[in-house]
Design a protein that fits this description.
29 helices; 9-stranded mixed β-sheet; 38% helix; 35 strands; alpha/beta; single chain; 8-stranded antiparallel β-sheet
Length: 1013
């Protein structure tokens, strides 16, 4: 049988898990082979089994399997015959030879007996769960005696004869399967718990408990030997949970001939200590029980155990000779097809198995030309569940997060309704959660992009097996994150934040449902009908309970908002803002990109430009949009942008790009398109550059040449250096006083494009054709400005007149295409990132362009969807919905940090705090009034406004009436007199509430303050 299945897989290309992977066998017109050769030696593991456990999805996927009688919230139905047949078939195709066909199976129930009979009929060995010694679970025990009209407690110390009687009854029924039965021995309690939780008279000592279990096994073995006529019946005992502890302590004795099965105690991650520490008995067989799934902690709906981790466990088993038996907990099968396929091959021929080569081959088989991208996606997904790669420590799995989240929600509801303090553990929970959340966001980016490139069965399988599970996991993590943030906000007395985060949980549950919907198409449309163990629906219920509790927040005195960190700092108003017309000059610019490709519409957002206060706007002029017919230029769209922005006090700087496909060899129209290369295209390019500069030279004084040529798009540094100098010469010829910006570098970690350009320009005496190098960059921590230092040092070797400018950078406010798409963004997080990025650069005197004013709706082959980095939220039709928090935050920076403020180059501050701080000092040119920016900068910004009290001494400073201002809220507060003191020219500030977003410590006279009413 196994030989036939191996032939079908190898020569017909049929996936052993074809049904569960939605990869139906392909029809073939002919079947012919020059030769056929299949050979296998003895398998590494003799018995290789599946345990269909926690099978909630399987039981209700089809509803014709029959009913069960269990005093338990789950398993009220039996898996349909059509479904169990698919399970058994898949196991056999993978050359597994053993199965536990269900949890708590009761052979007295015909519907459940059918599972055993069908498995045996297919040639599988059949065995029992470790809570079903001799086939008897506690549930079966109670049903048996109730059917006889008796009430018998599940307490072996009280009625041992009743246990012996039922063991005999069930042993007789199982014995009819003859040589296909592998018996299970042991003694456990109700629902996979220790026996002493059901029987209070069990001895309290480990020695006494070990003897009770050992005596029970001896009796079971006696009964089995009486009904099983084999000279040596096959039997095991599984050391799960308390069994492992008693075994390690030497308190268990096993009948001769019974195999001992060790188990993992962290699902799929590590074996229990007795596996490593207990000396093996000569002549006894050993094996392992291994979890691909474990409902209580997970994985359950989301695969979490990588091929490498499974290989490590089996490697330990092989090394210690525990290869008689391997039982894999496979749950509902469909979620774990990768792990089950890999495990089957390890168990058959462990020496030949290499995890890395296996995953590569598996991806090639399933995803063809996209195999490398798929492998990267799977590797990234599994890395979510590794907390520490060095030690191999496991991160939390889906089941653990579900329990932790629901527990926290229960506590939060109680606190909102009745008051009380938190347990102080929420910050730690968030610290654990955030790394996994970040990785899962990255998984989503990679997976969604890959899914868009896959076709047919490959796409369906990838969406079912990875994309859907990613959405479930990400939604779960987001839900818990918002509940935790609400809990912290309640601690801080911020009812608005509590409500905001509770409302945000709805988006998280919607993401979970979208994942379920994706994996519930076609034949699997009812796949999640039986989701009772994880029970994702309970998250909606807890969201509703949290919402219902919110009105109580203000009404209950015991949960009245606590004093905020600024409660002792009187609020005197808000930072006043100015429009661009009211600001004489500054180094700030805002993005007006992609108008050349119509990813945004200038007319839709123009009214927000001037009030923002930026003095410049970066616009991609778009050759292809200007010249749609050879030699005919259409300037109307660009006239609108240039003239209107100038009228609002905002100076446009134009980037000449990209190519133009109306000319052969003219390049493409978007990011990643090549340069114009043919003689005809280059002549047309020159003509267009000359025409655009001539048209706008009275209104535009800054020109940038191309965008991100170093982004791996087939443009070489040498090609671009020639192209820049060619173009710059034309610009300078038409406009001698133009400022020309070079490169617009995407990769700030490399300097090759810059070095080649500078070297060529120096050789030709054309360094005057480069006024600045523009760099981009989107680090997760916005304070990372090392690129500025790197490029300044490089440029200084060639010229002291070329400056470094930040040409494009900014954060999104939600799921996005483009840079930083692997971070869980919110509007608050965006505002804090943008503020830190702007002021970290300003602290180095770097002219700065904030990307971008309005969200952009991309529509190009490799980038489709919204780029959410805009300061304005955009509707699907590209109209503006509303300004974001980041808009107002940037507006305050643009108004405050204009050219009337100069940086204090010898600025110094100190702090006794362990917190890592960023700080810069400025003074007003006309009054010498000081402004200090300071923030916590060790990590990327979070979605929390929680503050930390910090002492700061500002050296050689002049403060007479200092105030504290928050650039996110705009609120300005007096600093109480007892919170600051001056000594020898140094001013010490005590317990200032700082957080991971810039605040100002400023002389009151330095700020324009809109008074509070």
């Amino acid at each position: 049988m196994f030989g036939l299945y191996a032939f079908i897989e190898k020569y017909l290309g049929v996936d052993p898990l074809y049904y569960w992977a939605s990869r139906p066998p392909q029809k073939r017109a002919t079947l012919a082979w020059d030769n056929v050769k299949i050979s296998f030696g003895e398998p590494t593991f003799r018995f290789r089994g599946w345990f269909v456990n926690d099978e909630d999805l399987l039981t209700e996927f089809r509803l014709d399997g029959g009913e069960r009688k269990l005093d338990y919230p789950y398993y009220q139905r039996v898996v349909s015959p059509s479904v169990s047949a698919r399970v058994f078939e898949a196991a056999l195709r993978l050359q597994m030879n053993l199965i536990i066909p269900s949890s708590f199976v009761d052979i007295r129930n015909p519907a459940e007996a059918r599972l055993i009979e069908d498995a045996a009929r297919r040639g599988l060995f059949v065995t029992m769960h470790h809570v079903e010694p001799v086939g008897v679970s506690a549930f079966g025990f109670n049903n048996f005696w109730q059917d006889r009209g008796e009430t018998v407690p599940f307490a072996i110390t009280q009625r041992p004869e009743k246990f012996h009687e039922i063991w005999r009854e069930y042993a007789g029924r199982w014995a009819k399967f003859g040589s296909q039965v592998i018996w299970q021995l042991g003694l456990r309690g109700i629902a996979d718990r220790p026996v002493w939780l059901a029987d209070p008279n069990v001895p309290k000592s480990d020695e006494g408990r070990g003897k009770l279990i050992s005596d029970a096994m001896a009796k079971q073995w006696e009964i089995i030997r009486s009904v099983d006529k084999r000279p040596q019946p096959l039997a095991t005992t599984t050391l799960w949970m308390e069994g492992a502890g008693l075994h390690a302590a030497g308190h268990l004795k096993f009948p001769q001939g019974v195999s001992v099965i060790f188990s993992d105690n962290s699902p799929g991650w590590e074996l229990q200590d007795d596996f490593y520490n207990v000396k093996r008995e000569p002549g006894r067989d050993y094996g392992i029980y291994y979890h691909h799934q474990l409902w209580g902690t997970g994985p359950h709906l989301v695969q979490g155990v990588s091929v490498w981790r499974t290989h490590k466990i089996f490697k330990d088993a092989v090394r210690r000779g525990s290869t008689h038996y391997a039982m894999l907990n496979v749950s509902n099968v469909r979620e774990f097809v990768l792990g089950l396929d890999a495990s089957a091959r390890m168990l058959r021929d462990f020496p030949a198995f290499d995890p890395g080569k296996y995953l590569t081959a598996w991806c090639e088989q399933h995803f063809g030309s996209e195999a490398k991208a798929a492998e990267a996606a799977y590797r990234k997904h599994f890395s979510t569940f590794v907390a520490d790669p060095a030690s191999g420590k496991r991160a939390m799995l889906d089941g653990e997060w579900m329990h932790a989240g629901v527990k926290l929600a229960k506590t939060l509801v109680r606190r909102i309704e009745k008051g009380g303090k938190s347990d102080g553990k929420t910050k730690g929970l968030l610290k654990t959660l955030r790394p996994q959340l970040e990785i899962q966001h990255g998984v989503g980016v990679v997976a969604d992009e890959l899914a868009g490139r896959l076709k047919g069965d490959a796409r369906e399988f990838f969406e079912n097996n990875l994309v859907a599970q990613h959405r479930i996991m990400l939604g779960l993590l987001r839900w818990i994150q918002h509940v935790a943030e609400a809990d912290l906000a309640l601690d801080a007395g911020d009812a608005t934040e509590v409500a905001r985060h509770i409302q945000a949980t709805k988006e998280a549950t919607a993401l979970i449902e979208s994942g379920k919907a994706l994996a519930s198409r076609g034949e699997f449309k009812d796949w999640y009908r039986g989701d009772r163990k994880m029970n994702c629906g309970q998250l909606n219920e807890w969201t509703a309970k949290l919402e219902a509790a919110l009105p109580r927040l203000a009404a209950l005195p015991q949960v009245a908002p606590r004093k905020s960190a600024l409660s002792e700092f009187p609020c005197i108003g808000k930072l006043a803002t100015r429009s661009a017309l009211e600001i004489k000059s500054s180094i700030w610019s805002v993005g007006g990109e992609t108008l050349d490709r119509d990813f945004a519409v200038y007319a839709n957002y123009r009214k927000y430009l001037g009030p923002l206060g930026a003095k410049g706007i970066r616009v991609q002029a778009g050759w292809a949009k200007c010249e749609k017919q050879p030699g005919v230029y259409s300037w109307e769209w660009l006239d609108e942008v240039v003239n209107d922005s100038r009228a609002q006090g905002v100076q446009p700087w134009l980037e000449v790009s990209y190519g133009n496909p109306i000319y052969p060899g003219g390049g493409g129209t978007g990011l990643g398109a090549g340069l114009p290369k043919s003689p005809e295209a280059l002549r047309a390019w020159d003509a267009w550059v000359r025409a655009i500069v001539a048209r706008y030279r009275d209104r535009v004084h800054e020109w940038e040449i191309w965008n991100e040529p170093d982004g791996g798009h087939g443009i070489t540094a040498e090609e671009f250096a020639e192209f820049h100098l060619r173009t710059a010469a034309i610009i300078r010829g038409e406009q001698p006083k133009a400022r020309i910006y070079a490169l617009g570098l995407a990769s700030t970690g490399k300097t090759d494009f810059t070095e080649v350009l500078l070297k060529l320009a120096r050789e030709r005496g054309q360094l005057d054709l480069i006024d600045a190098i523009t760099i981009h960059g989107y680090p997760k921590n916005p304070d990372d400005t090392r690129a500025v230092d790197r490029f300044r040092e490089l440029v200084a070797r060639y010229s002291d007149k070329i400056e470094i400018r930040q040409g494009e950078t900014g954060a999104p406010s939600g799921e996005t295409v483009g840079a930083l798409r692997d971070v869980p963004w919110t509007e608050l997080r965006q505002a804090k990132w943008d503020l830190r990025r702007m002021l970290a650069h300003h602290g180095k005197d770097v002219p700065f362009n904030l990307f971008t004013l309005c969200e952009l709706k991309y529509a190009q082959p490799k980038m489709t969807g919204f780029n959410r980095k805009g300061l304005l939220r955009c509707n699907d039709d590209k109209t503006v919905a509303a300004p974001k928090l980041a808009y107002f935050a940037a507006q305050r920076v643009f108004s405050m940090f204009d050219d009337t403020l100069e940086r204090i180059r010898d600025f110094k501050f100190t702090t006794p705090s362990d917190e890592k701080l960023a700080g810069f000092g400025y003074r007003k040119k006309d009054s010498d009034a000081w402004v200090v920016t300071v923030w916590l900068n060790e990590a990327p910004p979070t979605d929390s406004n929680a503050t930390t009290p910090v002492d700061i001494t500002v050296h050689a400073s002049r403060f007479t009436a200092p105030v504290y201002a928050d650039l996110v809220t705009g609120n300005v507060h007096e600093i109480p007199r007892d919170r600051w003191s001056a000594d020898n020219g140094n001013v010490k500030f005590k317990q200032l509430p700082l957080y991971d977003s810039p605040v100002l410590i400023a002389e009151k006279a330095a700020l324009a303050i809109q008074r509070a009413h």
